[in-house]
Every structure is written in C-alpha cells, then in structure tokens.
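Final paragraph of the annual report: two paired records, presented back to back.
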Amino acid sequence: MVNDPKKKVSITHDKWGRIEVEFPHKGYLLLLIALIVPYLLLTGFILGRIDWHPSSNTLNPVAATNTPAVAPTGSARGIPLTPGPWGNMSYRRIFIQSPEEYLDVSTYQNSDPRWFFNSETSRGNVLTLLNQTGLTSSQRHQLENAPWEQAANGTYVAPPADLVLSLSLPVRQRIYSRLAQSPENPWQLYPCFFPAGNVEDLFAKDGLSAQTLALLKQLTYTHGHLLFFADLPLALRQLNDPAEKMRLAKAVSRRSTLLTGVRIDPDSNVDALLAYWARAGQNKDLRPLFEGLSKTPGGPLPLMAIIPVRAGSRLFTFPSPSITAAERENPAWSAFNFFRDPPDDRYSDPLFMKQKLDNDYYPVFSDPSYGDLVFLMDSAGGIVYSSVFIADNIVYTKCGGRFVAPWILMTIPEMQDAFSAMTLSPDQLKIMYYRNKYY
C-alpha cells in the first residue's frame, strides 16, 4: 500500500509487517525502484530455474502396475529414469504418425460395420448380454430391430450408425471389451490408442475441424490409462471432405514413444556400463565408444547407437507395406530377432518360437535386464504380446503386426494397457520376463 507521496510512504513488504519510510516527493520514484526491482529480478531468476515438467513420475519396474501408462512429455533436457545399472539416462516423449501413403482410407471406410459375438449362438443370448451393459430402452429397441445373422461360431448384428454414435462412454467400453475377444471384430481387437487426456489438446496440431474433434471425443472410451478409439470406419462415413478424412486417419494413427539415451562423462564407470549394455558380442563396438565419450563429455548417447544395428535402424520407422513383411515382422518376430543379424524368419512360426523359448530361455523373477524378453501372457500361458527390456521400465517393440505399426519404445504399463484390448481388464494379463541362456 502506498500513501500520500508528499508525506509518509508505506510499502507492504510481507504479511508479517511493513516498512515505513519518510522522504521528499523527488526521491519517491528512485526509492520505489530501488525497493521493487531486486524482488522482480529475484522472482524472475527463481521462476526460470523451476522445471515445470517435474520428474517425480519416474519409470520404476518394481511399481509397474501403479505407474501411469504414459509418462509426461518432459522438457528439452529430458526426464531422468530411475537410477540403475543402465547408467544415467533420461527420456522425452514424442508422437509419430503413419505415412499418408500407408493409410487406406477407402478400405477403412468400407469395413464391415457389424458386431460379432463369439460363442453366442442365438439372438436372444446376445440381447441378454447387451442388456447388461447399460443400454437405454431406446437403444435396446434399435438393436432388437437391427439386421441379425446366425453363424456357426457366433452371431452377427448390424447396429444402426446413430445407435453406435449415441453410446455412452462406459457402455461403449463394456460392449467393445466384449467384442475385442473375437478376431472377427478387428477394430475393437486392435483399436487406435492415445494417452488419456483432453481430445482437443491431444489433436490440437492435426488441423481437424471442430466437428471432427467432437466426433472423435464422442467415440473414444477409456481402457486402463489410455483412450481407445475403435470406430474409425464409422467416423469416416460421417465426414464428406476427403482431405478431412485423411487428416483424421493420420491423426489417430499416432503412436506415443520415447527418445532416450545414456549420458557418459568422466565420472561414469565404463566397465559397469558395459557389463549392462554389452550383450551378444557388442563389447568390441561399445567399449571404444563409451571410453571415448568418458573423455569427451557431451550430450546423451542415443539409444539407437547402443542397441544392435539392425534393431536400432528400425526404431521409429515403419516396415515396407508388403503382405509378407506384415505377416513376418510382428512383435514376437522383432523381439526374438533383437540381437540377430540377419534375422531368423522361423520366429514367425508360433510353434518354432515356443520351442526356442523352452530350449534357449529361462524365466526371470527378479529385476529384468537389458535384452530380456518381456511377454504379456494370458491366464492359459499364451503369449499375447512380446517386447525386449531396455532399462528401468522401457521396452523395445513393434507396435502391432501390421505394416502401419512402427518399432517404438514404450513403458511396460503402457504396453499392458494398449495390448490387452481382448481382455475385460488389463490386470488379467501377466507380465513375464525370459532371459537367453547363451548371452
């Protein structure tokens, strides 16, 4: 508070008291500047030193089930990983999208809109099941009058578009989790997925219209820590502009991934780092690099320069769009061939993969290490998804079996949420680690 400058000036300093000074009018401005400017400079300095992307949300494998699936984007300096034998590492989150030439909008739009319910061999059983999901009476009536078709292994129903659009988030989640248990429902089984958050913020830079953003928000639903989107064909049919259709298809193709690296400086224990990272004959290549960096400090050594050349060259890329490659270069093939150059195509055969897993690997129940295979397994012991452990809580993987799926880095909880669509809950999948006996 400032009183009459010709008399006494009172300047509030803090809540505990105030400083009162008495001076002539000519000195008022100079004294006010002398008192206020240092505080402004100090405040600016403190604000500039604050990391507005806190690193408390680190990636701890011991607490994987409690870790958010998608960690924060982070600042330019990166967010540090939990300390461990992998050394001093940090990460930044980025998003990559499929090339436009890989996106077959016409085929997506013309996908079969029917729902298939396996093991439900009658219309009445399906209606009973759907009535338990929370449908309104109007929605139930629409389904009862929709086209139905009986198949040998289940039942098809073609829900009206306006019914699908009108589903609430929890009802959509319940129905689609059930549909995801059948390969006949590929969009529910392999949905697009994004970090949970505000749709407008997630897609703010994709150039989508307000109408498209509203449609996208209406059709997303939650699964674990992620947002799922399984209605791209329906959404495309609601749009008229071909350019907007492509923008939507590209926007929802995004994959969240991590840029990470190891910082090596004069204080680094090179031998300890090599004991962790030099696997499968990599010591001869990594030791000169690590020793050189320890004498010439700089920025982090990118992970792409540490992992095997073939695996590193694939990271953040998409395979060539051929049917053969799409069938071969799936998550399991990529995980088992992580250290192999050239790769062994026999790992595209599930029987061969199981045989090699039984003969050449053993399960690990303590902390995993670089190069260990990380599997999501169902209650019957079947492998649902495969990846390779890197460090802390980060895995290397091919994000799906199709050519529109890139090789990326992701967290284990994110992997658990993203590839458990066929289960009613991500917690139904068990995480198992396997280590090679020979390297």
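The closing record of the year follows.
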Amino acid sequence: MPYGSSAFWITIAVISALFGALHGYLLNDGPTLIGILYGTCIGVLTIAYERGVFFSGYSKRLRRLPTLAYLAAAEVSLLLVILLGLALTGSVAWTLGLTDKTFPEAITPKISTIPYALVVSALLVSALRVRDLIGSETFASLIVGRYHRPVSEERVFLFLDLVGSTTYAERHGDLAAQELLKAVFSAIAEPVRRYRGQVDDYVGDQVIISWPFSRGVEKARCVACVFAIRQTLRSDQERWVTRFGLLPELRAALHGGNVVTAEVGVDRHKIAYFGDVMNATARLEGLCRDTGKPVLISDAVLSRLPALPDGIDAEALGPYRLRGRSEAMTVHALAEKRVRRTAEQGNAHTKAEAESASARLDLAARVG
C-alpha cells in the first residue's frame, strides 16, 4: 500500500474513525457521529502532514535539527496540526448543522481531547515509521504472525547491485558514497511500489527485492520493475551527473523458486528467507560481471512469464554452472530492443570498417 494509494488513505481514515469512536466511549456518553468525524479528520490530517503531503520542506528542515531539538519541535508541530484539524472539523460541523454549539465553541477543543489526540497521533506516526523501517508487507506479516512458524512458499527475487560504488568510495570518501547509495535507493522505491514488489533488505550497495511468485510473474511485473528502475535513473541523468558526477548503473539478476520464510530474531525481529534460491540469485548477479550483461534472468522465471513487457528482448546465453551449485542454470540476458539494435548496428558498422580497412591493405600490397 504506497502512500499515494487510495487503500492507504482509506485504511488511515477507518483507523482514525475508530479512535474517534473510542474517544466518545472513554470520555463521553458513547460514540457519536461528530466524534467519529473529528477522529477521521484529525487522523488523516496528521498523517498527511507526517507523510509530507503539505509543509514537506518544513518537515525536512526539522529532521536536520539535533535529536532533542527535533523531538521538541516535532511535538509542537504535531500539536499545531491537531489544533488546526480540530478547528477545521468544528467549522465543517457547524456549517453543516451537525452540532448545536456556537461557532467559537465548535472550533475550540475540549482540554481532555488534546492529550488524547496527541497520544493517538503519536501511536499512528510511530507505527507508520516502523512500517517504513521494515517494509509494509513485513510489518503486516509480523502483526498477524504469519511467519511465526516457518512457511514454504514460492518467491521471485531481484538482486540489484550498484556498479562502481567501491571505486566511488575510494575517490570521494565513505560519506559521499553513502549519499550516493541513499539517493539511488530512494529512486528505486517508487518503481518497486508501482510494480508491487517489496524491498526485503539492503546489503552494502545491494538491494534485495521480492514478490510472491504468482504476483511477480503476472504481467511480467518483476521484469517491468527492473527496466522501470533503469528508466527512472536515466530520465534524471542531468541531476545525477551534477550532484555525483556520474549516472548510476545497476546490475540486476532475477531468479525464483521455493524458499522457507520465517520470523527470526529475539531483540530485533525480521522476516528472513532460507534456501538455495537466495544463493543462486546472488551468484547470478555476480555472473553479470563475467558476461558483460547488466540484466540476467534464470529460465526458472522466464519460462513462467506470460510474455515479456513491450520493448524488452531476451537473449539465450545457455547453461552456466554457478559457483557453489552442482547443477547448471539456464541463463538469459534481458535488454531493451532499441539498445540491442543500436549495439548490433554498432557491431555491424565496426565489422564493415574492419573489412574495408583489410581491403585497402590488400590493394596497397598489390599496387606496391
């Protein structure tokens, strides 16, 4: 559920409405329509502010403050947003005739309402930040306890690796390299959400993304995601070059199959995947270097795609015996048709030039 989706905001509205009803149950004679309306509006407005729908520049400046100053400023800002929400909701209720209060009374909150709204808003914001930290699907799985016991399931994995990150760090330092990685990972997020994948982990300069197998191969989402990410980076080439002096390039490997998924950890819980598929995908990503192909896909995934996305070609590379595996894996390279045609034209042009040069040398030798 990305933040811009209707499902996300409907969920926030429903949860906020329930807290509005709970307020009436705890502090008044029972849930009322006006209480539910207040809860819904305040909750949605608070989350909209926290998600950067409005005043996003102000929120970013707050995050640059020292921790204690940030916490204090954030609490004051949250209080102001709640007061604004109460006033706006009161104005709407008074205008629609939903309350018999005077206008000043309608827009003035009860003293007992403010602490309740602050606590509920803080809970919602904290839950969403945990969700951000571990991923929406992982968060939901932990809440419902889906993986308390290990589960065998089929998944498609996409391993992405930033090319040249080590060299960049050696030249510009670790802090600059971290800024580059942070920017690349941020750019990746939107295409992953768009194609319904989930970011499972960041390992150094590598990103691990996955789908339940049926979702990943449906409409070739896993493949479309790879090329959407590449297009996202290319479309902002000028900004990348201006800021970092380069256009980020990614190696990508797609593979899938049966894995065991389980909740692990004691002090810190996470959802982890176990099985040969993970190792094989990592080895396949390493094969990108050896083959010179930026995007590789195993036959195990390609054979189950209904069709490749428009404009994407697959080139069979044959079986490869990957390090640490006894069985060979049939591998294919994926590329945009335009790019492949350009490369083929370049090869043909180079071959023609070589043949022309050879002919000139032969003629010169005969004349001599």
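Residues 339-368 have pLDDT under 50 and may be disordered. This concludes the annual technical report; the extension proposal builds directly on these records.
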